[in-house]
Design a protein that fits this description.
Protein name: HSP20-like chaperone
Keywords: Stress response
Family: Belongs to the small heat shock protein (HSP20) family.
Mean pLDDT: 85
Largest sheet: 5 strands, mixed
Pfam families: HSP20
Structural class: mainly beta
Order of helices and strands: EEEEEEHEEE
Number of strands: 9
Helix content: under 10%
InterPro entries: A-crystallin/Hsp20_dom, HSP20-like_chaperone, Small_HSP
């Protein structure tokens, strides 16, 4: 998606991902393609049962030098990807690892039962 801002365009994209549900361990593993990024370039947020992966990748100016691109397929700019995780998933249930441009998230497919909190009546 691109939107004009003055003479510039803001580019946003959704990184590609693979999702695997492991029936033997009741876990879900999601792997996102984030080439050239480090863990400090990526944010992972959980609000209720909405998981958001976001960040920004920049163009490598060194590869361009004085020339002009004749083909540029590598995405850059701001990115985000939103996923719904099971209700009751807590931040401590999520495990994240960044290695070789791949962000891997793992969480339980069925989180522990959420027990109601009894409210005393005054």
């Amino acid at each position: 998606m691109m939107s004009p801002v003055g003479n510039f365009r803001i580019r946003t994209y959704s990184p590609r991902m693979n999702m695997c549900e492991h029936t033997d361990s009741n876990m879900v593993t999601i792997t996102f393609e984030l080439p050239g990024l480090k863990r400090d370039d990526v944010a992972i947020d959980l609000l209720h049962n909405q998981l958001t992966i976001s960040g920004e990748s920049t163009i490598d100016q060194r590869s361009q030098g004085e020339g002009r691109y004749s083909c540029r397929e590598i995405p850059y700019g701001k990115f985000h990807r939103c996923l719904t995780v099971p209700l009751g998933t807590r931040p401590e249930d999520l495990k994240a690892r960044m290695e070789d441009g791949l962000l891997t998230l793992t969480y339980p497919k069925d989180p522990p039962d959420v027990k109601p909190h009894r409210i005393p009546i005054a």
